[in-house]
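Case study 2.
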Amino acid sequence: MGQIEELAEEYDRHISAPWVRNLAGAQKVIFVVYDKADERRLRAKKEAFQNATRQSRHDWREFDFTDIFPKWMASDEYRESYFEVPEDLAIKASPGSENAEFTLFASECLRKALTEEGVDENTVVGAFGAGSLLGVTRLSHVLKKVEADIRGRLVVFFPGTYDQNQYRLLDARDGWNYLAVPITLHHGGIDR
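Prediction:
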């Protein structure tokens, strides 16, 4: 059995357990942590997570961050000037700022997925493509903006590492501590 299949089994064990309903938004987030080299394999096997969710009698929706940046650029009236002077884009994106325009745009896109019609306390929203945010914004900033909008569970498929309560997206920078439930292949699955 491959690592993605093992992660799907660990996810199945977690998602099929009875849900606590009165959690804060940050506690309704689940990170499925996998090696960054396994991104394509994970996407090819994402139905295993969808099937586990549905077999546990929960609804499943998907969201993908992968094309958020091009959508944001396409919607900006000054997009042509950024190709001439790319440094100007850094001012609007400001990866370190949780109120930068791109962070707000990405948060709003995720918020729409979390609050669309039919998404309720029994729904899992699976978010793919988190690695595409690297260098433009911080995933932690985006999640902080939508915590109050999580009705059921938000599962973030996270290409990176989790160690000693620290997440590192694509192993590229210092991690952050987040209240999400990590599902990993270390320590027998769900790290607590």
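The two ends are 24 Å apart (CA to CA).
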